[in-house]
Amino acid sequence: SNFHIKIPLTLAIVSVLVLKAGKERFAIPQINVLELVRTNSESNHRIEEINGSAVLRLREKLLPLLSLTEVLQTEERRDHKSAERSYIVVCKVGMVEFGLIVDQIFDTEEIVVKPKSELLKEIEIYSGTTILGDGSVIMILDPNGLTRCLGKQDQTPDTSRLEKERADEQEKTSFLLFESQPNK
């Protein structure tokens, strides 16, 4: 038997984090993942709402949140406050940091990136596909496309303004001035 294997020159192997939103699994490039956070009622990390938009208070910093199930429109809109336990993937694209709410986090894997279909080229949140070791095909999320979805939210909180106001409050110092007269 003779086997001929053709490997394309543009073959890309990327380290990704496999996660689940709704009933589907997805991959996100690990280079864009800063950390993983699990929120619950007893945790220091909690989801808050500012002007109707969900934010994560993480080490005195407010991160805008994006629910992957809402972006994909796989389920009806959930109240972020009612979600007692959430998994949040903190991502960074350029200078933009945001949290991605997912239902489950699996493991990191080295995958071979396959280009996305021509039918999906208009959908900006996908960058390609891959076949996992178990034979399942999953979509690779594009963090740049996710940041564009973040900007399209109707009520994206102005976290930079909130952080500036908070920093101004911390910089204020109270003084008590008094003058004393020498005894004559």
Can you summarize this structure?
With 184 residues, this protein is of the alpha+beta class.
What layout of secondary structure does this protein have?
Blueprint: E1 12-21, E2 24-29, E3 33-39, E4 46-50, E5 53-58, E6 61-67, H1 68-72, E7 86-93, E8 96-102, E9 104-113, E10 126-131, E11 137-141, H2 143-152, H3 159-171
Parallel strand pairs: 2-11, 6-8
Antiparallel strand pairs: 1-2, 1-9, 3-7, 4-5, 5-6, 7-8, 10-11
Work out the radius of gyration: 23 Å
List the secondary-structure elements in sequence, H or E.
Answer: EEEEEEHEEEEEHH
Q: Whole-number average pLDDT?
A: 80
Number of H- or I-type helical stretches? 3
Structural account:
This protein is an alpha+beta fold and 184 residues long. The protein contains 3 helices and 11 strands, in the order ββββββαβββββαα. The chain has helices spanning 68-72, 143-152, 159-171, and strands spanning 12-21, 24-29, 33-39, 46-50, 53-58, 61-67, 86-93, 96-102, 104-113, 126-131, 137-141. The strands form 2 sheets. Strands 3-7-8-6-5-4 form a 6-stranded mixed beta sheet. It has a 5-stranded mixed beta sheet with strand order 9-1-2-11-10. A hairpin with a 5-residue loop joins strand 10 and strand 11 (137-141). It is elongated. The N and C termini lie far apart (114 Å). The mean pLDDT is 80.
